[in-house]
C-alpha cells in the first residue's frame, strides 16, 4: 500500500519482440511484440492490477505501447507517451551484431569501439540516466502518494536502477537484471529513493523467448 509521502514508480521492460532477422532494432519503427510478448504484457498487467496505480507512461516505440495496453485497460487510465523513456540511441542499429559480432571487425566500426565506459557506440550512459531521472521524477509527482508505471526498454531501465542505487553506470550488458516484461520498482519518500525491488511476472514464459536484440 502507498499513501502519505510514499510513492512507487514501476519501471517495466516491454515483452518479447517479433524479430526473426535478429536485427539490433533500437529505435527503428515497425518492431512489435510477438505473440509471446503479448502474453508477457498480460501477465505483467495482472501482476500490477491490484496496485494503487494513478499514472501510466510509455516509450513511444510500438513494443512499449503494446506492453502497457493491457494494464491501461485494467487500470482504466490514459497513457502518456514520453520520449525521455525511449530506447537508447545506438550507432549499430539495423545490424545483426548480436548474432554476427565479427561485423565489428570492419575498420569503419573501430572508432565506435574506443570507449566502452561512455559508451562510444551510442548514447552516453550519463545522458540516459539524466533523461530517465527527469521522466521518473515527473511520474512520481503526478502519482504522489500512489503509484506510477513507466514502460521502457532494457538499457534505460537498468541504467535507472544503477543511478537510483548510486552505482557506476558502465557495466557488462550480460549482467543486467532486467528480463522481458520485468518490473523494477523504485519506492520514494518525498523525492528520495528508499528502496529498489525487482520482479519477473512473466518468468514462466522466459524459457520460450528467443534471443532478444536491441530491446
Explain how this protein is built.
The chain has 215 residues and is of the alpha/beta class. The protein has one domain: Phosphoglycerate mutase-like (Rossmann fold, 3-Layer(aba) Sandwich). The chain contains 4 helices and 6 strands. The protein has a 6-stranded mixed sheet with strand order 3-2-4-1-5-6, sandwiched between helices. The model has no long low-confidence stretch (mean pLDDT 92). InterPro entries: His_Pase_superF_clade-1, His_PPase_superfam, PGM_Phosphatase. This is Broad specificity phosphatase PhoE. It holds the Pfam family His_Phos_1. It comes from Allobranchiibius huperziae.
Which structural category fits the helices and strands? alpha/beta
- Kindly provide the name of the CATH class: Alpha Beta
List SSEs in N-to-C order. EHEHEHEHEE
What is the beta-strand fraction?
A: 15-25%
Can you say what the CATH homologous superfamily is?
A: Phosphoglycerate mutase-like
Key traits:
215 residues; alpha/beta; Rossmann fold; six-stranded mixed β-sheet; 4 helices; globular
What's a quick, concise take on this entry?
The protein is α/β, with parallel strands linked by helices. It has helices spanning 35-48, 62-75, 125-142, 154-164, and strands at 6-13, 53-58, 79-81, 147-152, 183-189, 192-199. It has 4 helices and 6 strands, in the order E-H-E-H-E-H-E-H-E-E.
Amino acid at each position: 500500500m502507498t499513501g502519505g509521502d510514499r510513492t512507487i514508480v514501476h519501471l517495466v521492460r516491454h515483452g518479447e519482440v517479433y524479430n526473426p532477422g535478429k536485427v539490433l532494432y533500437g529505435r527503428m519503427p515497425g518492431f512489435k511484440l510477438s505473440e509471446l510478448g503479448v502474453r508477457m504484457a498480460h501477465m505483467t498487467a495482472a501482476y500490477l492490477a491490484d496496485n494503487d496505480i494513478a499514472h501510466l507512461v510509455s516509450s513511444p516505440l510500438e513494443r512499449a505501447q503494446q506492453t502497457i495496453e493491457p494494464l491501461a485497460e485494467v487500470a482504466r487510465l490514459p497513457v502518456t507517451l514520453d520520449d525521455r523513456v525511449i530506447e537508447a540511441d545506438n550507432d549499430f542499429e539495423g545490424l545483426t551484431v548480436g548474432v554476427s559480432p565479427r561485423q565489428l571487425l570492419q575498420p569503419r566500426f573501430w572508432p565506435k569501439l574506443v570507449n566502452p565506459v561512455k559508451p562510444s557506440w551510442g548514447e552516453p550512459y550519463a545522458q540516459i540516466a539524466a533523461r530517465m531521472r527527469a521522466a521518473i521524477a515527473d511520474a512520481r509527482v503526478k502519482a504522489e502518494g500512489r503509484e506510477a508505471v513507466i514502460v521502457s526498454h532494457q538499457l534505460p531501465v537498468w541504467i535507472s536502477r544503477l543511478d537510483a542505487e548510486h552505482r557506476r553506470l558502465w557495466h557488462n550488458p550480460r549482467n543486467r537484471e532486467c528480463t522481458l516484461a520485468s518490473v523494477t520498482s523504485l519506492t520514494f519518500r518525498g523525492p528520495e529513493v528508499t528502496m529498489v525491488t525487482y520482479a519477473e511476472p512473466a518468468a514462466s514464459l522466459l524459457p520460450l523467448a528467443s534471443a532478444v536484440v536491441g530491446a
